[in-house]
């Protein structure tokens, strides 16, 4: 994590501390007239989150409390904890999971999406398409008793 100090010569108090939480190498494609939308998603204990879906443009998120299970097409699922960030490129990539990893407490994340004008911010993927593309999904983790 990179830290930056910003000095303000006329300030009465200490300067702010800026910490880079995450970066995305290379500029992701953002539609020329994209609508930037920031939402707060609160997941009840054990919530599976949204069904598999796509976003029309890239999305950048930050977990503010709890833990979420995050999985994009072609990548293994992972747990993103409070204070950590995630991103997805949007477009044709399926977002499989964004559920609450915790069974006994709520989790929440803030996400900013850059949506293509006139398109919904989230489009569910059909069961048929999930089946057609199942070879693109990373191997599933082995679950105890499952």
Describe the structure using short key phrases.
three-stranded antiparallel β-sheet, 1 helix, 146 residues, globular, mainly beta, Jelly Rolls, 39% strand, four-stranded antiparallel β-sheet
How would you characterize this protein structure?
The protein has 146 residues and is mostly beta strands. It has a domain at 35-136: Jelly Rolls, CATH 2.60.120. The chain is 4% helix and 39% strand. The chain has 1 helix and 11 strands; from the N terminus they run βββββββββββα. The strands form 4 sheets. A 4-stranded antiparallel β-sheet has the order 3-10-5-8, with no helix packed on it. The chain has a 3-stranded antiparallel β-sheet with strand order 7-6-9, with no helix packed on it. It has a two-stranded antiparallel ribbon with strand order 1-2. Strand 6 and strand 7 form a beta hairpin. The longest helix is centred in the last third of the chain and has 6 residues, at 127-132. The radius of gyration is 18 Å and the shape is globular. The termini are far apart. The mean pLDDT is 90.
In short:
The protein has 146 residues and is mostly beta strands.
Question: What would the average pLDDT be, to the nearest integer?
Answer: 90
Q: Which spans have pLDDT < 50 for at least 5 consecutive residues? A: none
Largest sheet: 4 strands, antiparallel
CATH superfamily of the domain at 35-136: Jelly Rolls
User: In angstroms, what separates the terminal alpha carbons?
Assistant: 37 Å
